[in-house]
């Protein structure tokens, strides 16, 4: 998925400054932005208050949206570098194409994992015909310096490990959770899980005390550690938790993300993750010159142009303020 902001800021994120060693409650409302042909999403990461959770550096929540008789998701070919994209659907279908030749139909419960590494281009679209509803999250993971120039790759996993507790059904999307490991390739210690709560659920789930965590409300109704989460919001939980209390009066869904605090500073701009402003500028130049990122074949519209860079780079900032 692309960040389609036509005036994206340069953000320096990461580092361990701003990582709470103790449990916290930091509720962040999603900011509504338009994606592709106007499809609305709620952006919960990065925000002015919170820029990373572990290596997770970007999160959009969308739906459930009735897209019957509409185009649904339509994101023309665009580049990525220095990151992984994680596609997770509750409802709907997304057709993925990329410049390494992948063509995949991502369905609910599938993990669509794209590693951009040194550079890849891709498109995402609701196929024609497509299901009535579109509902899910799109996440990015920053690659550590040792792996950020790795070869681009696509993984499509249709079977993922699951776990359960009274009133709870869970799926491990990325990394490790409660002893189960996702088949998706991870380059830093991560956790990503889909948590579906039945009406009346009241349960505790185990966490890694060394990880920081956040919960994204994919449906209304969840109460996480005593905090009611509006749909499309993120609750940052900090580190130092051995478990997490979840409750739901009505059926609800939460996506839990976490990981070891990312100790490298990164610069994020548009669809790029790098370490310096100059690397971002070179990536933009190469995309505009049709270099480095390859070609996506089969999409029905022209590729996206990169926005203009700001006149001067912003000052380095930590992962939170």
UniProtKB/TrEMBL annotation:
Superkingdom as given in the UniProt entry: Bacteria
Matching Pfam families: Pirin, Pirin_C
Residues in Pirin N-terminal domain copies: 41-141
Renumbered residue ranges of the record's region Disordered: 299-321
Domain Pirin C-terminal intervals: 193-290
Entry's family note: Belongs to the pirin family.
PANTHER family assigned to the protein according to its UniProt record, in alphabetical order: PIRIN, PIRIN-RELATED
Identification of the protein by name: Pirin family protein
Source organism of this protein record: Yinghuangia aomiensis
Organism taxonomic ancestry: Bacteria, Bacillati, Actinomycetota, Actinomycetes, Kitasatosporales
């Amino acid at each position: 998925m692309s960040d389609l902001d036509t005036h994206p800021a340069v953000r320096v994120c990461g580092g361990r400054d701003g990582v709470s060693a103790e449990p916290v409650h930091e509720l962040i409302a999603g900011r509504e932005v338009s994606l592709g042909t106007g499809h609305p999403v709620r952006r919960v990461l990065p925000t002015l208050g919170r820029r990373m959770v572990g290596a997770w550096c970007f999160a959009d929540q969308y739906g459930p949206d009735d897209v019957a008789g509409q185009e649904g998701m339509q994101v023309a070919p665009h580049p990525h570098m220095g990151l992984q994209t994680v596609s997770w659907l509750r409802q709907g279908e997304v057709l993925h194409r990329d410049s390494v030749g992948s063509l995949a139909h991502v369905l609910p419960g599938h993990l669509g994992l794209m590693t951009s590494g040194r550079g890849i281009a891709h498109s995402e679209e609701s196929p024609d015909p497509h299901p009535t509803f579109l509902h899910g999250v799109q996440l990015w993971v920053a690659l550590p310096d040792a792996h950020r120039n790795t070869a681009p790759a696509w993984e499509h996993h249709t079977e993922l490990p699951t776990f359960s507790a009274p009133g709870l059904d869970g799926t491990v999307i990325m990394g490790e959770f409660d002893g189960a490991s996702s088949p998706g390739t991870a380059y830093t210690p991560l956790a990503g899980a889909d948590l579906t709560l039945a009406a009346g659920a009241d349960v505790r789930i185990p966490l890694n005390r060394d990880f920081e965590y956040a919960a994204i409300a994919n449906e209304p109704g969840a109460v996480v550690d005593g905090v009611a989460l509006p749909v499309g919001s993120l609750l940052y939980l900090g580190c130092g938790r051995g478990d997490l209390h979840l409750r739901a009066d009505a059926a609800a869904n939460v996506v839990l993300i976490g990981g070891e605090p990312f100790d490298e500073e990164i610069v994020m701009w548009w669809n790029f993750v790098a370490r310096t402003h100059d690397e971002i500028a070179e990536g933009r130049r190469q995309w505009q010159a049709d270099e480095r990122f390859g070609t996506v074949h089969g999409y029905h519209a022209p590729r996206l142009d990169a926005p203009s860079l700001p006149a001067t780079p912003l000052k380095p900032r930590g992962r939170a303020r």
